[in-house]
């Protein structure tokens, strides 16, 4: 071994011990001919003292030539630091190494950025020199905590009888939502594998195979346009179990998340943070199917109050069957100019208008206040639980009105710092619609995926009123972000065919694409369900990081590029020929 100890383990109980350290030069300081080097590895930092009286001239010359990030080996004795020079900020701060030998294992050229710097380097530079970025203490901490979380998840699920089984990375292309990454086959020219968007079908087949409880830290790949903080490849904690109901999966996942948080933050969850609300309740009260419960304000339905008022716009909307929804934001002050900006924003979002009332105790200020009786104004303040601040109103179709106010709810909370950044607020959203109508595709599509089971009492609506059918689906939401989604699956081949048919997939197509899966369901498939947690997102949120790239060793940019390796890249004509491919777009010269 090139070292006998690491740079983070020595203390006073090691005084007098001769040791060999190896690591990177974090800093070098020359104090009157005696050179101090902070030697770093991933375990910590140890100060090494090079005294010319203890070293040969050649050795001391090497020490004098050291630069940041040179890799060295140092041999010496552990001694007590002189009184007054101790460093309480590091674990080894009471000792130092009196060096007797040094070996330079490798040199480092001038750095594009200092390893000790945090947050002052552009992301493109960091990703281009990711091997240097990953030496930074913050990044190493993130990835080590990610590792601990993965171990905690594996240990917990193993304790619960789950078996870790790897599923294929080369599979067939099936329409599951996003675009597949395709891999051409050299052995069967003209045919392609697809990289998995998720292990969905494989894990369901494992249930048919009788494995009962499966899990995997699965790699998932999607060739989609990358919105902010998305990655073309990510990791999820994927699990599936047989003979379960939604509550079984939810209880299991709550304890799984609890174990992960203990591993990452060294503290258990407050289990009271897992309320359950339906999709309809979430949309009505928060304007979102992934509400952020760190924000106190909720959307209220005040239609009945306006139905008898003299404010004609809202009274007419109520008479037409539309709803008047309100959102109160307490303890804020807005100028009329600011309010006009919000009104313009509401119009951009599709609202017919945005009304507002400023509240200050029993005083109400608004262009519409003169059309509303004092009694109704007081009722509005009481229903919205506000004594000082602003109440916003939108009158429209129920969902549209709530969604618009939900956007304002998030925007105003961020603008006025109304979100507790250190809070972790989990909740389950349940009873999602099974289907929705896609204006883009002009047909019904699955809200989650086509393998989600409908609620048994709603199956009769599949033919007559498919949009009324609720799915046995559930999402785990943390601080306004969906970090996990799952459902009870369809385990009947006939019901699965029925859902494909309702989705407008011709029988010939679903037999061609999913025939192997439908056949598996015919061979005694048990009732089963599961969930997948976005592992990168969960760790980043627990650590309070804005980007999942901070917990991924080698992430891509928002354009899907790896700046370290310059992928994606062109391939040689010989490789294209072997695959039977020809580029439709000429290679750039």
Task: Tell me what you see in this structure.
It is built from 17 helices and 22 strands. The two termini are 50 Å apart. Helix content is 30%, strand content 24%. It folds into three domains: 12-106, Nucleic acid-binding proteins (OB fold (Dihydrolipoamide Acetyltransferase, E2P)), CATH 2.40.50; 146-165 and 196-276 and 426-551, BirA Bifunctional Protein, domain 2 (2-Layer Sandwich), CATH 3.30.930; 295-415, GAD-like domain (Gyrase A, domain 2, 2-Layer Sandwich), CATH 3.30.1360.30. The strands form five sheets. Strands 6-9-10-22-21-20-17-11 form an eight-stranded mixed beta sheet, sandwiched between helices. A five-stranded mixed beta barrel has the order 1-2-3-5-4. Strands 12-13-16-14-15 form a five-stranded antiparallel beta sheet, sandwiched between helices. It is an alpha+beta fold and 589 residues long.
Offer a concise description of the structure.
By secondary structure, the chain is of the alpha+beta class. It contains 17 helices and 22 strands.
Task: List the keywords.
30% helix; Gyrase A, domain 2; 589 residues; single chain; OB fold (Dihydrolipoamide Acetyltransferase, E2P); globular; alpha+beta; five-stranded mixed barrel; BirA Bifunctional Protein, domain 2
